[in-house]
Known about the structure:
The complex is a heterodimer of chains A (170) and B (112). With 170 residues, chain A is an alpha/beta fold. Chain A has helices spanning 8-14, 43-54, 65-79, 89-101, 110-118, 130-137, 140-154, 160-166; strands spanning 3-6, 29-33, 58-61, 105-106, 127-128, 156-158. Chain A is globular and about 45 Å long. In chain B, helix 4 packs antiparallel against helix 5 (84-91). Chain B has 112 residues and is an all-alpha fold.
Amino acid sequence: MPLAVADTCFLINWLSFRRWEDIFRLFNRILLPSIMVPELRSQRVRSRVEELAYSGRLVVLPRVDYVDREALRIFNLVNSTPGLPRIDEPEAYGLAYAALHGIPFLTDNASPRIAARSLSSLRGVAVYDSLDLLVLLYRESGLRAAVEEFMSDTSVTFSRERLREAGVEL
Amino acid sequence: MIVRICGASPNSYSACSNPPTFSAAFTSKRYQLALLSSLVAGEYLKRLEEARELRRRSADWAYIESRPEPLKTALKLLVETGDLWYSAKLSGVPLDELNEERKRARIPLVVV
């Protein structure tokens, strides 16, 4: 998979993982929508993002009208559908970009994932969370160790159901 | 705020030039489909509630109460919603600063 679009929260946490560079075994380049860049204020995260951008492994996406329109459609649809968790503007933009260009969207938030599984107009859009990437990257005992390290480094926890789905026993 | 749902074609923005109102959309085929799909989301809503309980149990409340405003409110909002961006945006605390604070406050981000 050459490209994936990521949301800010995902990127911030993933960059705290000791094996963060492994993500580039899955994707040649990570796309970060420009509307998310102002969210990055800490020097540590900004430096790493700039370093990645300089090396060509991260590209900041310009904000464009046709993606905005699709993002607004997704924003309205998800937020007006009873039972679906609220989607935020940057997530809607990232999901819209991913849907329009047929590339995965990386986020640890539930809303885009649930929307992509529940709404017929978003079916087929690949939404990956951190556990999905760990499963794609590591196998068996290596996976278990990676999950433990990820949780320790990022303070991100995976629900029992997600771990069971991924076949990980901690 | 009047929420509008566009017409039958998901990608046809010309259909939005005179979109149905929210109440009219309740009867549309598209809305009915969305409603059926929300049943799938029901399983996730249970997981989200369990995640909220985990955040409430894990949080260091003494630490949260010791923080100045608007950090204190942002952390409490994060415990309830689990949504880092939303909590940061509403409170005005920078996203990555809130992320560091939530680690100190032992609030896990729970992937469901």
